[in-house]
Amino acid sequence: MSMDPSEYDKAVPIVAAHLAKVERAVSRTRTSHAGQPHVTVRQALVEALRDEDAQPVVPQVVDEFARRISEDPDMLPF
Q1: Which helix (H) or strand (E) holds 45?
Q2: Predicted local confidence at residue 1, as pLDDT
Q3: I need a labelling partner for 18 at 20 to 30 A (CA). Which of 8, 10, 28, 74 fits?
Q4: 36-45 long-range contacts, CB within 8 A, separation 24+
Q5: Total-model pTM
Q6: CA separation for the pair 45, 43 (Å, rounded)
């Protein structure tokens, strides 16, 4: 199924805004929780995503960001 190019053009700003919210939440969590246990980081990240109104985020993505913030915060893309 192909997508109408005009639909794609409408979706891009929505996706970009969502990704900016996720980036803010991850950055904020990394600043405040880098190196802490995974469970603590994950909970803080879930709350930050909620605060940014960046729902939904795939649970595996949240887990991976939390793991990186916990284990190696300098290896994040943001």
Answers
A1: helix 38-51
A2: 54
A3: 74
A4: 36/69, 36/70, 37/70, 38/66, 38/67, 38/70, 38/71, 40/70, 41/66, 41/69, 41/70, 42/66, 45/69
A5: 0.85
A6: 5
